[in-house]
Every structure is written in C-alpha cells, then in structure tokens.
Amino acid sequence: MDEQDDLARRFDAHRPHLRAVAYRMLGSLGDADDAVQETWFKLSRSDVGAVENLGGWLTTVVGRVCLDMLRSRATRREDSLDAADAPPRMPDPVVGDPDRIDPEQEVLLADSVGIALMVVLETLAPAERLAFVLHDLFAVPFDEIAPLVEKSSAATRQLASRARRRVQGAAPAPDSDPVRVRQVVDAFLSAARGGDLEALVAVLHPEVTARSDGGALLPGAVLRGARKVASQAITYARYAQDGRPVLVNGTPGVLALDAEGRPVSLMAFTVRDGLVTALDFLTDRDRLARLGLGAA
Q1: HEC profile for 73-92?
Q2: Same structural domain for residues 41 and 122?
Q3: CA angle 239, 171, 59 (to 5 degrees)
Q4: pTM of this prediction?
Q5: Where a domain ends, among 149, 170, 191?
Q6: Percent with pLDDT over 70 in the chain
Q7: Cα(88)–Cα(119) distance, rounded to whole angstroms?
Q8: How far is CA 279 from CA 93, 115, 199, 233, in A?
Q9: How far apart (Å, rounded) are the C-alpha atoms in residues 132 and 140?
Q10: Residue 46 belongs to what domain range?
Q11: What is the pLDDT at residue 26?
C-alpha cells in the first residue's frame, strides 16, 4: 500500500465524523459532502507526517471549509434584493425508517441534533456557529478554534457563549422517549384528520411555532400560537391523510406521498413535556426528491 492509499484509508475512517461536523455547520447534506470532499483535497496536498492527532487536524480543516462556505452564503444573501423578506428555509432533514437502525445515520445524528436545533443554528452568524458546533457539540478546545475565526481564545469563548444562549432559548432539549413522542404525534395527526380543533390545541404548546418551506414556487411562512397553528393544520390536513411514519433527525415524523409514490410533504415534530413545541413542514418537491424520499 503506497502513502496515498494509506492516507485515503485513514481519511475514510474519519469521514463519518467529518460529515457530522459539516452537516451541523451547513444544514445541507449535499454541502456537507462537498465540504468533506474539499477536506480530503486539502489533506492530499498537505504534509501531515508530523501531525499527531489526524482526527483533530481534519476537524479543524473541515470547520474552516464550512466557515468559508457559510460566509459565502451570507454574502450572497446580502447581495440579494429580497434578502430581508426571504422565507424560512428548513435545513435538510435526515429521514430514516422507524423500524430499522441505519448506522450511518446514527453517526450523523449523534448528540440529538434535531430539526429545531438545526433551525436555530441557521440563524447564527458564521463565526458563532463554528464556535458553538466545534466546542459544544464536538469538544474542540477554544484555543484550536480561535485561529479559524481570527480571534483570541477569550473572544471565541464569548462567540460560543452567545450562540449557546440563543440555542438554549429557542431550542431547549426535547423529549427523548420515542414512544411518548410518537404518541403525541399520533394524537396530533388524529385530531388534524378529524378536524377536532380543541383536541389539536390540547397537544400544542401555547407558544408553538410552525414553519413551512415550499421552495421557490411555494414561499414559506411562520405561524406562532396554538390556535393559529391548529387552524392551519386542519386546513392542510390533506398532507397527512396518507402519511407514513418516519424518523426525522431521529424523532418521529410523517412523510406524505401522492398516488404515484412521490413525496409531497415531510413533517418534523419537536415535542417537549408532552406537547408539540415546533412543527416544520418541507413541501418543496424538488428538495424532497433530491433527498431520495419516496415509496419504499
């Protein structure tokens, strides 16, 4: 085995971890794969013979790649005339079968990276997101993150602290019992399909937030409050009529298909203390198709 083959083998051993870092940083599975590939290119062109901790080195490299990608996104948004009025964008969900464990998805979703957390991460400034993700989710020391954001370790700590407060305020830890969460989701679906407004309100947190992302052809929207969300859910209950249970970022959700088996809607639920605190709807058919969702 030559040196390049050995390097590729060592890199592949770290690939699932790097993809997990990039997914949390970018909220896009395709972009995460691109970031991991760019990390390999940088590794293949570098002399790492003296690197004692290759995993740590690769983590900081993929972090830098993701930071550059996030900054490029931010610049494009600033250049867009419609940036201020841009509808919410749901991060790429990781959709799985509730009856089958996927080892690759388990690695990708370690540490309960639910949709609600991913949505909040999308609101952070690039440097804040990097500091929070690398330190809080992957235990990278601040003195290793600081050079990436071109700040002191103390200033980098403040970035992570500011991001942590945002995350804890907007995405507190959800219920972790999948059976209990599935019961709440089933109660929501039963009430929505039956048009029972009061039963629906009863399973929603009073300050529940519902976000929809329909892509360019169906602009998204945000609703807040149990009664508003319940009324809208009943109006659009047709999306759930033929839905089948799935896992969305490890949490029970619903995928609705049309008569030809094509995905038309994905619903992700965030449940805390037995109530739905957030609903995220992805109805962008192009994105659903790119995610490979459809009839099994």
Answers
A1: HHHHHHHCCCHHHCCCCCCC
A2: yes
A3: 105
A4: 0.87
A5: 170
A6: 90
A7: 9
A8: 13, 9, 17, 10
A9: 10
A10: 3-170
A11: 96
